[in-house]
Write a structure and sequence with these properties.
94 residues, two-stranded antiparallel sheet, 4% strand, mainly alpha
Length: 94
């Protein structure tokens, strides 16, 4: 499928959608101005994730799995709710 400026997207790519409350939470987080680059990186990783997973669950697990950065503000906004889920998601190295 060709989009706008000639970029090609695979029809087999996973399609992810944020809920209304997730979009509002991201907008409120963005207005505070901390950790924006980290959230943008998390969104790009989530969009390519082959698993059907909500954004809130993905970013909570993603923030915990990152060891090179201090993601305290992201972890506070999207706290991890299940360590079992974290282990299963990141066993494959997402």
């Amino acid at each position: 499928m060709q989009i706008g400026g000639g970029e090609m997207f695979d029809d087999e790519s996973p399609m992810h959608c944020m809920t209304y409350s997730e979009r509002e939470q991201v907008k409120q987080f963005a207005r505070r101005g901390e950790g924006l680059a980290d959230v943008l990186i998390a969104i790009t990783h989530w969009m390519r994730c082959a698993q059907d997973i909500s954004f809130s669950a993905y970013i909570a697990n993603w923030a915990i799995a990152q060891t090179q950065s201090d993601l305290t503000v992201v972890k506070n906004e999207w706290p991890l709710s299940s360590s079992a889920f974290k282990n299963s998601l990141y066993r494959q190295g997402s």
